[in-house]
Design a protein that fits this description.
This protein has about 475 residues and is α/β, with parallel strands linked by helices. The chain has two domains: about 375 residues, Alkaline Phosphatase, subunit A (3-Layer(aba) Sandwich), CATH 3.40.720; about 70 residues, Arylsulfatase, C-terminal domain, CATH 3.30.1120. About 25% of the residues lie in helices and about 20% in strands. The chain has 14 helices and 13 strands. The strands form three sheets. Strands 3-4-1-5-8-2-9 form a seven-stranded mixed sheet, with helices on both faces. It has a four-stranded antiparallel sheet with strand order 10-11-12-13. The protein has a two-stranded antiparallel sheet with strand order 6-7.
Length: about 475
Amino acid sequence: MRYCGAMILTLLASGFAFGHEKKTNVLFIVADDLRVELGCYGSPALTPNLDALAKRGVRFNHAYCQQALCNPSRSSFLTGRRPDTIGLWVNSIHFREKMPDAITLPQWFKQQGYVTRDVGKIFHNWHTKQKGDRRSWSADEFLYYANHGEDKPQVKGPLPANRAEAPHCQRYAVGDDAYYDGRVAAEAIRVLGEIKEKPFFLAVGFWKPHAPFNAPSRYWDLYQRDQLPRLNPARPTGVPEVALHDGRELRGLPPRQMTFTAKQAAEMRHGYYANVSYMDTQVGKVLAELDRLGLRENTLIVFLADHGYHLGEHGLWAKTSCFELDARVPLIFAPPRSAHAGKATDSFAELVDLFPTITALCGLKTPEGLEGTSLVPILENPQKKVKEVAFTQHPRPAYFDRTATGEAEAMGYSVRTSTMRYTEWRSWKTGKVLAAELYDHRTDPGEMNNRISNPPDRDALKMAQTALHRQFPPDRIPGK
């Protein structure tokens, strides 16, 4: 019997052998606010555990979130639908308020006979009466609902001196378990021992590198601050004001916003790298336990971040933009066996593609209504493509649910092609284009020069516009 390559990959991943089918486990790992800052991507970040995972799987160089904010992004990839389809663009609304009957990724696995468990932040930590999504899991979630600001060191005895000075920074000589992520790793290890004899979908959500920048001091000590990449805080030339934001997540609310000094900015950037290494170590602990239990050979491992992040670049702090630093995310697929282990692909992927890809790799049917595309052909051949572009969007104001009116004024729709990023900022009420951006990634990968008034390649711009308008028609009004 002859099978196509994708079918072979699916059968291998699902544990099919000698007429016996064994369900493939899934270890689904999500980092919070992690831009593409891993060693395996060429970053100076020290991430040996995720680098090792990339050597056992396929690394996507061009993966993109659908919106650079926790709840919209997570609700999107966990339901397989884009933010506009759900009608959700803010943190304060639970996705089931919009789509009460949506089937989530873990819920679908649960319906197929899997034990599904949640350790840490997977769904957004909603500040609403409905917290988490219990129907998706076989048992109660662990440390899924909390506030990042509440992640303070828990130690026995007196707390050591804080060696950090900048806002949002803490540098205590404490153990890993003093903070959320250390406890998330410990619980994930415990749960693995509990469910190891059953087919499982284990989601592990790490809270880092999200602020505050409070990794234990030993992770700060891994870096020399003056050797980290220097910050260029300049705004892009010709950037429309609507494309920017006030960075209130870190700078505070107007009119009393902080303006960080160069020294403070350098320390905060140092703290972000420390957080990344701290998170990487916790991932390594979970992967080591997976190996110790002999589960690696029958477990699909997926690692991703919910969205990217700014650390002062473009004059921005945190997320909520359509720029590359916010839109692009790390994504690694490590099937139990892969003929392309250690390879990287430049093919486009979107986080909305996760749902159909993971179900296909596990030999499961895919529910109706998903908007993503299976990435299995790329995993079977990293040179293949399943889509030509990737889309990201974001409203203005970024946190419009917290404004006096509770209404948005504009939506930014952005498309990333192989050569450029094109963004249209449209009126929320009329759909009229208020401003546009064009960045040529061949000569300007940092997106520092808006070329919309003098496009370097009008044919490429027309192709980008056509793709954007096909996905988001020009007369589209969000929520209608």
